[in-house]
Amino acid sequence: MCDTTASWAPNYKMNAVYSIPWQNIRVNGSLLSLPGQNAQANVIYSAAQVTAALGRAPSGGGSRTIGVIDDGTLLGDRRNQLGLRSMASTWLATGGEW
User: Fold this and answer.
1) Contacts of residue 4, Cβ cutoff 8 Å, sequence gap at least 6
2) Residue 64: which pLDDT band, with cuts at 50, 70 and 90?
3) Which SS3 state, helix, strand or coil, does residue 96 take?
4) Is 1 inside any structural domain?
5) Are 24 and 89 contacting, i.e. CB atoms less than 8 angstroms apart?
6) pLDDT in tens, 5-48
7) Reduced to 3 states, what is the DSSP secondary structure of residue 12?
8) What are the phi and psi torsion angles at 60 (to 5°)?
9) 53-73 per-residue burial string, b: 16 or more CB within 10 A, e: under 16
10) Which residues constitute the domain of residue 13?
11) Domain total for the chain?
């Protein structure tokens, strides 16, 4: 059985809200950072190359594809998203009638 332990690539998510009291404006932002896609590299060996390496013909005939990079060991660039918003006025609900 093969060991298929993947590398640890966390997701980062952050939210922040700030109220500017003298203008009654609320500003909020969010950040999302996701790991890149898993990089893959394969080599295709023909039946003749497999026969030369093994000293016998491959079972099932045809070519063989061999993975060069283990899954989860090499990741692409992270994907980052940043969102900023502001709300011009905020409403304060106090006890009693609306």
Assistant:
1) 71
2) confident
3) coil
4) no
5) yes
6) 666 778 999 999 988 887 778 889 999 999 888 888 889 988 88
7) strand
8) 85, -10
9) eeeeebeeeeeeeeeeeeeee
10) 9-36+76-90
11) 2
Does residue 3 fall inside a structural domain? no
Write the burial class of residue 84 (CB in 10 Å: 0-12 exposed, 13-18 middle, 19+ buried).
exposed
pLDDT tens track for 70-93: 777 788 898 999 998 887 665 666
Q: Please say whether the beta carbons of 36 and 80 come within 8 A.
A: no
Question: Cα-flanking dihedrals φ and ψ of residue 48, to 5°?
Answer: -65, -40
Q: Which two tokens stand for residue 33?
A: 């950072």
The two three-digit tokens of residue 59, written as one number:
């079972």
CA neighbor of 68 nearest in space, from 40, 38, 48: 40
Note whether 60 and 42 are same-domain residues: yes
